[in-house]
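WP5 quarterly update. Target: Cation-efflux pump. Source organism: Spirosoma pollinicola. Length: 294 aa.
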Amino acid sequence: MEQAVKPHQAERGQKSTLIGIAVNIGLVLVKGLAGWLGNSYALIADAMESGTDIVTSIFVWFGLRTASKAPDQNHPYGHGKAEPLAAIVVSMALVGAAILIAVQSIRNIQVPHEIPAPFTLAVLAGVVLVKEILFRRVAKVGVETESSAVKADAWHHRSDAITSLTAFVGISIALIGGPGYESADDWAALLASGFIVVNAYLIFRPSFGEIMDETPAGDWQQELSTIALTVPQVRGIDKYRVRKTGFEYFVDLHIVVAGDLTVRQGHDIAHAVKAAILSEKPAVYDVLVHVEPV
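Structure tokens (predicted):
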């Protein structure tokens, strides 16, 4: 049987992840140095968030690489579960980063410190722009490849952009307000940690559903029924099950046919239904068809 999802989809996901890693390495250095020189914990927290981006993107890359492997004797359904597992690792890392940022922000709020330097605003504005561009690029790849890990990686970039944006607002308040508003950027970092936790949940929920073989979104019953009914002698669908594994979908289908058909005829009809589904829905890797006589 022909491979349903072309290898270039996995390669596109891996390429976008490697680009993200390279960008984040540069951002960690820029934000960390600017935060230290500019006396801004919000910017340092932003650098820490980019640091977690690097680690989780490496997990995503390995997850995509593993998920793209062909089925073998020990993994007859392929290695696709590695892909949502990588997304779950990303969500857990986001929660860990959010907790670390929140704890340090609370400590800094309680300890008086200097107002951040004005130049940190320029750094943050550039970071927001870079991260938003990166988010849109990676998110597009995630949608086109239907990869939960790539989508998770994209949202990690968006959470970094949100962290930078809140830091920009916090530092602006501190600079405009002057003495007494020194902790504004720390409050911004604390607020950003909340956004990061929300993003972590948005990444975790669909990935966990995929691990649990949750029915994918979409009107699969109607689509499968329409395709099956194009095959002569098929009267309808009795039952169906669909699950997503990595980049691909597996379908279990019960079709209804006349009870006086021979075993050979039922067998040929089942194969015709399978071929029709694989032809009409390229993302489906395999179809198991059971014949129900009436």
